[in-house]
Design goal:
This protein has about 350 residues and is of the alpha+beta class. Helices cover about 50% and strands about 15% of the residues. It contains five helices and ten strands, in the order ααααββββββββββα. Strands 1, 2, 3, 4, 5, 6, 7, 8, 9 and 10 form a ten-stranded antiparallel sheet that branches. α2 packs antiparallel against α4. The longest helix is centred in the middle third of the chain and has 81 residues. The radius of gyration is 36 Å and the shape is elongated.
């Protein structure tokens, strides 16, 4: 089984996003209080968006925390190196002191003047000794300053890392709360979808807020984040012959998108595909989306690439939540072609 995931790149300010995440779940729950399909569908769509934001923020903070940890470790390594250099300087200073003592460096200045063969010899000795002491002193001062600075930087880095860890825990709790609400909304959505399929009536489109769709791509994948499961032509006990499409394993309530520009030619409930939508595209091809939990378009409606046309589910002849996607040369079952190379030929690699 080949898997693929697509995630949008979003850059958000941490503090602002944290405040937004704290406020948004309550607002979403209050706004979507209706008991009908539209109310639950809208609630699921909003909770999906909030869970995605929380997940991205969680990952962003986790990565930031790891970067902060690595920075602290670099500070520690640098500090250790400076300490080793200071130890080397201390040893060097000890050697200089011992050499001075052996060569007269410890003799009082008056005695050195008496014992010196010439004034030049005395001055050279004193100059060399003074320069050596100055160089060692400067090196020690520099290392001490560096050690003090690095210790402060290390403490700052550790405090920042601990702060990021606290934020990480807060975001993880927010994500957990959103997913708990999402699970409940999914259950309600699937229950309403099963009732509609059993009655053989979809009950009209569930209108939810549509995302802003970029007009630069003519074709897109039917779901944004997914794992590919049963493929075209594969065998299975639940199919009369061979599998007629490509399955995408996604949770209940995942937004399902029109793969391209077209017109909705069929919205139906019941049968093997449960709740389904069929869209006609320019060039004589049709795309079908089966086992849905909700439909957000009406028959005859024009759609654009990436527009949400429904939400995934597990209605009809289904063993679990997934989207069954087909590409056909007619609106009817039995005229399907392999959708993976068909989409790849249009620039969509699954």
């Amino acid at each position: 089984m080949r898997s693929s995931r697509r995630h949008p790149l979003v850059v958000l300010v941490l503090l602002c996003a944290l405040a937004v995440l704290v406020a948004r779940p309550t607002g979403a729950a209050d706004h979507a209080t209706g008991d009908g399909p539209s109310g639950v569908s809208a609630q699921v769509a909003r909770l999906y968006e909030e869970a995605a934001v929380a997940t991205r923020q969680y990952e962003a903070v986790r990565q930031k925390a790891e970067a902060q940890r690595a920075k602290a470790e670099r500070y520690e390594a640098l500090l250790d190196r400076e300490r080793r250099e200071i130890a080397v300087l201390h040893k060097g200073l000890g050697r200089i002191a011992r050499a001075q003592y052996r060569t007269g460096g410890g003799v009082p200045l008056t005695a050195q003047i008496i014992l010196a063969d010439s004034p030049d010899e005395l001055m050279r000795g004193q100059r060399v000794f003074s320069q050596a002491q100055l160089a060692v002193g400067n090196a020690l001062d520099k290392s001490r300053r560096a050690e003090t600075r690095l210790a402060a930087d290390e403490a700052t880095a550790e405090a920042a890392w601990q702060d990021l860890e606290r934020r990480n825990a807060q975001l993880a709790q927010l994500k957990k709360d959103i997913e708990r609400k999402l699970d409940e909304a999914r259950r309600q959505l699937q229950g309403q979808a099963d009732a509609s399929v059993a009655a053989g009536s979809c009950g009209g489109a569930a209108r939810i807020d549509q995302p802003q769709v970029s007009g630069t791509r003519a074709w897109v994948a039917p779901v944004e984040t997914y794992e590919m499961s049963a493929s075209f032509g594969s065998g299975g006990e639940r199919w009369a012959h061979r599998h007629t499409g490509q399955d995408f394993a996604v949770p209940i309530g995942t937004p399902v998108r029109s793969v391209g520009t077209g017109r909705v030619v069929r919205v139906s409930c019941g049968g093997a595909f449960g709740m389904q939508v069929v869209i006609g595209h320019p060039g004589g091809y049709y795309s079908q989306y089966g086992h849905l939990a909700s439909v957000t378009v009406d028959q005859g409606e024009r759609v654009s690439p990436g527009q949400w046309i429904g939400q995934s589910g597990s209605t009809g002849n289904s063993t679990g939540p997934h989207l069954h996607f087909e590409v056909r040369i007619t609106p009817e079952l039995g005229s399907s072609v392999d959708p993976v190379p068909w989409l790849e030929a249009r620039g969509v690699r699954l």
